[in-house]
Each structure stands twice: as C-alpha cells, then as structure tokens.
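step=predict obj=Probable cyclic pyranopterin monophosphate synthase n=161
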Amino acid sequence: MGEEFTHVDDGAADMVDISDKPASKRRAVATGAIELSDSTIEAIREDEIGKGNVLATARVGAIQAVKHTWETIPLCHQIPITNVTTDFTVGEDAVQLRVTVETIGQTGCEMEALEGVTTGLNVVWDMVKAAEKDDDGSYPETAIRDATVVEKTVQQASESE
C-alpha cells in the first residue's frame, strides 16, 4: 500500500507535529439536533422540566466539552479557545444546536465544535429523559441527528496578535 499514516501506524500512536505551522485565526461551526416529543418541546419552551432549565444546562455542557476536547479525542491537540458561542433553536419537533468555536493557533477547531454539539445535545437528552421515556423505559421519539461541521475558516493571524 505504501501509505504513511499521520497518527497511528502498526500500533504506534503519535500526535502530529504542528510546530512548523504558522498560527492562524481559525473558526469552526457545527450543528445538530435532538428530536423530541411535542409535550417535551412544550415543557422546554415553558421551562417546566423537573431537572431545571434545559438550555442553560446544555449550554454549559457544550462549552465545557469544547474546552476538554483534547482529553476525549485521542491525539487531538490542546488548543487555546478564544471564543465559544452556543445557539439553540426550539423547533416544532426538535431542538437544534449551533456551536461556534474560535481559536488562534496552528490547528483547526472543528472537533471542538462537534464535541460541543454532541455533548450539548446529550445534556438536553439527560435533562428531558424522564419526560421522553415511554412505559417500557424506552425513548421511541428521541434521537440525536445530523451532527456536522457546516463552516470552517482559516485566516492568517497578524503579527500583533
């Protein structure tokens, strides 16, 4: 095959050396959604979920996940996070989450944005699971879908930054 792998080869694992790459302003945006029952959506809108404010809790979880991505993704670089924004939209049958991550560094932040989305949506699920369970303890209407990176930008950082 003759391929050279950048991270793992023959059982040996190495982090990619990025020390020669110039620092750049980097931005990544990821989105995803959690499908929920109509009654749960209404309870989120009315702030009537027994565990507390669903979106406030999920926002904290998403930001924490962004900051700790390097600890959960093997061989992922620890990067300086300069900004994180979380935007929730409560729709008719789902809660959508958009996470924007910014950094100035030598590697991208798309994994951080994805970690923010998936963890934020997992926190929503955890907060509403009592409302979503059916009589058998299953979650027939609950599903996390479409976690994806929708934007990635790189801009050379100026000398003064």
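step=describe
The chain has a mean pLDDT of 93.
step=end
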